[in-house]
Amino acid sequence: MLDKRALRREIAAQKRALSPAQIEAASADLTAQLLAHPLFRAARSLYAYLSYNQEVRTLPLIRQAQALGKRVAVPKVYGETDMRFLWLDDPARIAPGAYGIPEPVDDGPEADDPAALGLMPGLAFDPQGHRLGYGGGFYDRFLAAEPHPTIALCYAFQLLPQLHRLCLCLFKCRRCRLFLLFQRCHFSGQCCQFCTPGEHAAGTHR
Fold it and tell me: Which of 37, 91, 157, 182 is deepest in the core (most CB within 10 A)?
């Protein structure tokens, strides 16, 4: 098993190797899965994120959620450690923010739905609900203070058999069960043991 730093480099390299067509195909697949998911259908609001670089595209999903009558919030970073979710009623009002990641231009209003469904970004996941993030700890801190059920949208190569030895510091909360939606292994020469599309109802780790 690689250490965290090496695994982050490996997954990031695989993401950079994706073509725009592959990203769009996987994003469409995962968006369709999420729109059909019972947690999404039952949610009144969605705490999403604005995708960056080769992440699964979330802006089309945000627009579809809003068209279905759901209110959507996305994160904005303040300083070194503070991340807040702000309602994004107009998806056009975004610009590059902290670390170059898109975020709202406005500083409010702050989202206030304790039952909102969260979308969880990350570099790698496992079926037990462990997540390897980008290293900033923003989501760990946010969910420690405000638990939400969460869903992660990930490429097939981001779903690994076991991460717990790397992710001992991850937040644990029984109110924050993580569900994984993962794409089909479309890419030639690239597959994994989880290549059947579908969902893992993972454990309670963050």
Answer: 182
Cα torsion 196, 157, 190, 18: sign: positive
- Measured at the alpha carbon of residue 199, what is the angle toward residues 22 and 119, in degrees to the nearest 5? 70
Enter the pTM of the model: 0.82
Tokens read off for 43:
């949610």
* pLDDT per residue as tens, the chain (206 positions): 567 888 889 999 999 999 999 999 999 999 999 999 999 999 999 999 999 999 999 999 999 999 999 999 999 999 888 999 999 999 999 999 988 999 999 998 999 999 999 998 988 888 777 788 888 889 888 888 888 988 889 898 888 887 755 543 333 333 445 566 665 433 333 333 333 334 443 332 22
AA letter at 141: R
- Cis peptide bond upstream of 109, omega within 30: yes
Of 131, 155, 164, the closest CA to residue 55 belongs to 155
According to DSSP, the β-strands at 178-182 and 150-154 are parallel
Determine whether 13 is exposed, middle or buried from the number of CB atoms within 10 Å of its CB (0-12, 13-18, 19+): exposed
Write the DSSP symbol of residue 160. Answer: -
In which residue are the tokens 């597959």 written? 191
Non-local CB neighbours of 40 within 8 Å, separated by 6+ positions: 34, 46, 65, 117, 151
